[in-house]
């Protein structure tokens, strides 16, 4: 059993030193780690659970995925540094993006009654489009197109660093979810709220499905109207498959008409009516930004993020310094508080997606299965095919037909209690503030105890006064 890592007692793991356990997910445990070298750096290491290592189909897809994602090198895509194994333990090593997802950022702004400025929204969309275009154009080692489509782009899968860098998280997993969908005709991977209609109906998708998802994210930011993430599954499917959008300016009067137009174009139901490419969409966003907010830069974006997460950033700075350099720069009186800082790097849930069981009435018999990439390689006798492995085709039995999936394996139930808070942290679902602030939890708990104490002692006091009055009454009674 792995000893609990700490800055004083890091656990060696290949070329990494595991510094701190961050949490756990369906497919494995997540650690903050140090990668040595001339310039050491902090990374996120995700170790695959031992029982999955025994699943040869899972491992096969895992290794196939490695050939794709490690090739993606773009400033607007979070890097996967390496995927492999250390003495039979499979792992992913990912970029530690010091920042927050767009979902967490917008929730914090809403909690503070602050709106995201127009220029920053347009810049955010522009950078996302640059990352998308690079991925859509990616080729394999033989220069054959990979036909990569993210298919799960949402505010929870786009993050912003405190320097203002915009990075798409978890690009490339479409290769594995693609194969999973071919063996499970009613399973769709992704968030229904941001899903393109052709994807919701299990039709052929290409990069324009990602442009639609980006359009939904920008609509939500421009309208400053939080879209529902829960509800009746059938109703949500109908809305995803047959969307209808009002202009963002219907909710926010200050949204310019030309911005309305370009976002609504990205949200067209028919892919051929949308922008032809991410480059075209991104250029339209850039021109709009130059018209309405020409002075906005990545620095403005980073400064706003750092301002609303000032306390979290300070604690994270201190933890990462200790992780990278093996020593602390924190005054003695703050060290205990620093050790309690919760780290929630956006890449912690990489390669784990939402799997949704589609209602049969939504799917038409003539619809083709989603197949944006190359066909799966022919099976050989030594490796089971996905369709031959019952663990890859078992029905989803979680609440409302929603679960998490990774490399074709569905996790109907989480395997570690901490994953719920980790998902909450990264995706900003539920009571994010309470989950992300242990001190707030402590204060709330103390406030609750104080209230109970006040009620208890108040009750005793009232009871004592009542007894006193009764005693006087009986004493004076003739």
Spell out the blueprint of helices and strands.
Elements: E1 11-13, E2 16-24, E3 28-35, E4 41-48, H1 50-53, H2 56-69, E5 80-86, E6 89-95, E7 99-101, H3 102-111, H4 118-136, E8 158-161, E9 166-168, H5 174-183, E10 187-189, H6 197-200, H7 207-223, H8 233-241, H9 257-266, H10 278-292, H11 298-308, H12 310-325, H13 332-339, E11 353-357, H14 390-393, E12 402-406, E13 409-411, H15 418-427, H16 432-436, H17 438-476
Antiparallel strand pairs: 1-2, 2-3, 3-4, 4-6, 5-6, 7-8, 8-9, 10-11, 11-12, 12-13
Description:
It is a single chain. This protein starts with 10 loop residues before the first strand and ends with a helix. It is of the alpha+beta class. The protein has a domain of 315 residues: Transferase(Phosphotransferase), domain 1. It is globular. The strands form three sheets. A six-stranded antiparallel β-sheet has the order 1-2-3-4-6-5. Strands 10-11-12-13 form a four-stranded antiparallel β-sheet. Strands 7-8-9 form a three-stranded antiparallel β-sheet. It contains 17 helices and 13 strands. Helix 7 packs antiparallel against helix 9. The protein is 43% helix and 14% strand.
